[in-house]
Predict the structure.
Amino acid sequence: MAELMAIINLTPDSFYAPSRVASADVDAFLARVRSFAAAGASIIDLGAVSTRPGAVLPSLEEEWARLAPALEALAELRSQGGASEETKTWEKPPQRLHPNRSAEAGNETAAAVPEERIRISIDTFRAEIVRRAYGVIGDFIVNDISAGEDDPEMLPTVGRMGLEYVAMHKRGAPGTMDSLCDYPDGVVAELIRYFADFERRAAAAGVERWILDPGLGFAKTPEQNWEVLRRLPELQRFGRPILIGAADKRFTREVPPDLAARYSEGLAVHGYAPVAPAAGASAAPAVSVPNAASPTAFGTAVAHRMALAGGAAILRVHNIPK
């Protein structure tokens, strides 16, 4: 079981086009927030910078110009929601995050979260964006793909403000990360080393509440991404909530046969249809493929099931199954 972090991208170039909302279209943005809240998301993750492979990073001012209208609309929504003075900012979550539903599991009922009470996450690597956003909406979750490496002011800023923080593993930048997938000791050993080092840096900066994101799709081959999911329990040694962002990423286009067979059961009730192997194919068990539009939907569902089995606390998603 996991909380659902629903993605809204305020960018023109994020890799998953249906997640995009024009930053100036406040009505469309709020409609998307309300839709996600009604479907059971408890966190909305706002992105104003595309980090897809090959993306060109915008300037700080361009990032803020995309983000500010959405934050101002959320602040107004909060005010209209009749929140008390104690809850005008989004509440700090407990140390272990609690689930609303099990994504793709089919046996949980989504608990709608009123949109004025939903928690906000901002996907940024810039400390100045954190400072400006805090001035508009108060408390929120900082979702930093660089774990503080791209801006030396990030961790001290988060520590001073007492914000919750998502630390993600990556290497390089969007234009270089696909060439940085060599891990001599293995990808999981690298993650353990990386987050042990981050744990020390976070403590030194006063960052007390942080979430571990292994960074699926960032400087990792498809095989390495699936290996991380297979061995996810090994990352629980840090005692931190684990966030998995697998939705519709390139590696989900091809699911290893053993994983497809193991995790496909029951997916037909979520828009997936069972398909037998083609004539002359190996005797591998029949698996399911999506009859939805997304070519990565089946792989996403398998990745989410693996994440849940491995103890993930948060699933970062583009869509929420009905």
In short: The domain at 3-255+301-317 is CATH 3.20.20.20 (TIM Barrel).
